[in-house]
Write a structure and sequence with these properties.
By secondary structure, the protein is α+β, with helices and mostly antiparallel strands. Helices cover 34% and strands 26% of the residues. The strands form 2 sheets. A 9-stranded antiparallel sheet has the order 5-2-4-3-11-8-10-9-6. Strand 3 and strand 4 form a beta hairpin. Helix 4 packs antiparallel against helix 5 and helix 7 crosses helix 8. The radius of gyration is 20 Å and the shape is globular. 33% of the residues are buried.
Length: 327
């Protein structure tokens, strides 16, 4: 899809530097030499075209009292569609893909810390008719930064997402903060004073709401507030999950090296399984499979790690932000 340069600049700003102000779209416009109405008109168009999925916060699930795992299944081809539908009905599933591997169905599963995710994954596998189901929780996070550079800029600003440090234990969140999280994850309306509507729903003055959002950002509960894009419609049509075989003593160095690449959005060390020995994962986004392959080859050269596979998404069954405190 062809976009004007000004739209690309707007998308970059809205992803990384969205202003938490009473009139955020006027503030964006002042950065770009546009008036508020023009900014809103362009954002409405970008949302109608489904390039922008939503504008809102990205939460640190651990600080909210949640944990997650990556689940892989091997299913007979004839069972995949029904299995994906069954899995998508689980409220804890946020992403679900058919990938080009023996383990052909991959999905993320999250729930509160007191929930046994491995048991849920095993039950889903049993109900779906999977021959093998493996759960691969993260052991260490090197990078979480979902940012799609629409201008091919060399220097990408660092944010709290790109230098993400997870916590092992979360404190108890007040009921009022849980209510705030529930409301914020609905997405920001595209209107001149969008936080007014959110504040009214919560029975707050708008300044009180903005202060509470700022407090959640300072504490790390909100890692980033901004636009979330549909990577395919934004032009990043290839999505490769790279899975690496790294000696334990080298994981720290290799993980940090891979995480520095600007087209890597996520980088994790994960638990292994007897049927799946890969322990380091990186999501690579590119404009083509060839570009993703070239990036992976360069990462292999930079790290000295030759053992890796690229799993491309063949079909997307589910892609949504996790829903917290939805009960």
């Amino acid at each position: 899809m062809s976009l004007e340069v000004i739209d690309r600049k707007l998308l970059n700003l809205a992803q990384l530097e969205f202003p938490i102000l009473q009139e955020p779209f006027a503030a964006l416009g002042s950065r770009l030499g546009l008036n508020e109405d023009e900014v809103l008109k362009r954002l409405h168009y970008l949302k109608e075209m489904r390039i922008i999925r939503s504008i809102g916060p990205t939460f640190d699930a651990t600080r909210l009292g949640y944990h997650s795992t990556l689940v892989a299944m091997h299913l007979e081809e004839k069972l995949v569609e029904d299995a994906a539908d069954l899995i998508n009905h689980n409220a804890g599933v946020s992403h679900n893909y058919l990938r080009d591997n023996y383990f052909n169905l991959w999905f993320t599963l999250s729930a509160t810390k007191d929930t046994n995710l491995d048991a849920i994954a095993a039950k889903l596998g049993e109900d779906a008719g999977a021959e093998i189901t493996i759960s691969l929780p993260s052991l260490r996070v090197f990078k979480i930064m979902v940012y799609f550079d629409m201008l091919n800029e060399v220097d990408v600003p660092q944010t709290s997402e790109s230098t993400y440090t997870p916590v092992k234990e979360a404190g108890d969140l007040a009921d009022t903060d849980k209510e705030l999280v529930r409301e914020l994850q609905q997405g920001l309306p595209l209107e001149k004073r969008p936080f007014d509507r959110v504040a009214a729903t919560l029975g707050l003055e708008v300044n009180q709401l903005l202060e509470r959002i700022a407090s959640l950002k300072k504490s790390g509960i909100i890692r980033r507030y901004g636009a979330r894009l549909d990577h395919r419609r934004a032009g990043f049509v290839a999505n490769a999950m790279s899975c690496w075989l790294v000696a334990p003593a080298k994981v720290d160095r290799v993980g940090q090296t891979i995480a520095r690449h600007r087209q890597v959005s996520h980088c994790y060390e994960r638990k292994t399984a007897p049927q799946w020995p890969h322990n380091l994962y990186a999501m690579i986004h590119g404009h083509s499979e060839e570009e993703c392959s070239t990036i992976a080859s360069k990462l292999s050269q930079d790290t000295g790690i030759e053992g890796y596979v690229l799993l491309y998404s063949i079909k997307e069954y589910m892609k949504r932000s996790p829903r917290y405190f939805a009960e």
